[in-house]
Recover the amino acids of this structure.
């Protein structure tokens, strides 16, 4: 089935570009997924015009393989539009509508062009539908990849924000943990802590687990690995925030924390850290 010959899309695109462009934009603006708050009409018009011209060049090449080199400019343009819309906040449906909304105005022109030849009309309508479906799927795939990339980057940024390493005193760092510790987050915690130890030259790090809701064997192992890595960098760790429930769980699991200093609260851990660094907290004399 040939969509690129004299009885294909080529004459439609060559003779009716302006009409097709206008009707296509109208169809997109009439769609319930149209987002004028995210894209201006002038920008939409430029994208539609660029696509029609890229489509015309691909059709003129004679190739029907949308994955071929002749269709690379079309794919590049659609990828750019999909990524842009993914970052702007368009939905999957709204992004795919850019391609699928072209069907109706194209079918209308095909009906006008081949009104006297029902067989050719049916063939060209089917071929055009298949072509736009393939391009629509490509748009959706690129959009989904963009969204997945954004979500992954946001998750990484949230991990960074959820594992702050704070300098409490000269030579004393604190790492307050909140939430569940999985392998990915534990790796981020270790990297951030070690980097801060190198930058500050601190000799003591307080890991506060007050905000960790549960303690299991995997979580304990992650903590021990972090403590061991910090020791290799020349810093000793104090684990604070050991609540009664956590203590019972650790004993029940048989996790050996005998080689790690633990405290019930960060305040207790901070006092101990100050002593190790040669500082002491004293109350001022009354009346002075």
């Amino acid at each position: 089935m040939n969509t690129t010959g004299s009885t294909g899309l080529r004459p439609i695109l060559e003779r009716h570009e302006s009409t097709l462009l206008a009707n296509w934009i109208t169809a997109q603006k009439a769609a319930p997924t149209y987002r004028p708050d995210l894209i201006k009409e002038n920008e939409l018009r430029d994208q539609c015009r660029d696509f029609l011209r890229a489509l015309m060049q691909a059709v003129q090449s004679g190739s029907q393989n949308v994955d071929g080199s002749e269709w690379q400019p079309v794919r590049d343009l659609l990828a750019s539009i999909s990524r842009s819309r993914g970052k702007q906040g368009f939905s999957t449906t709204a992004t795919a509508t850019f391609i699928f909304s072209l069907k109706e105005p194209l079918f209308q022109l095909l009906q006008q062009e081949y009104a006297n030849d029902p067989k050719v009309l049916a063939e060209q309508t089917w071929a055009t539908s298949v072509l736009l479906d393939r391009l629509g799927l490509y748009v959706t795939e690129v959009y989904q990849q963009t969204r997945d990339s954004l979500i992954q980057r946001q998750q990484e940024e949230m991990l960074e924000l959820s594992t702050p390493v704070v300098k409490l005193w000269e030579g004393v760092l604190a790492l307050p943990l909140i939430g569940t510790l999985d392998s990915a987050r534990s790796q981020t915690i270790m990297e951030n802590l070690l980097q801060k130890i190198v930058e500050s030259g601190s000799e003591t790090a307080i890991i506060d687990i007050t905000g960790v809701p549960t303690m299991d064997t995997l979580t304990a192992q992650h903590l021990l690995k972090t403590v061991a890595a910090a020791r290799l960098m020349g810093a000793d760790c104090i684990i604070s925030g050991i609540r009664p429930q956590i203590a019972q769980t650790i004993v029940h699991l048989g996790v050996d924390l005998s080689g790690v200093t633990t405290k019930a609260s960060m305040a207790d851990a901070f006092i101990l850290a100050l002593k190790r660094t040669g500082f002491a907290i004293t109350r001022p004399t009354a009346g002075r």
Notes: Confidence is low (pLDDT under 50) at residues 1-7.
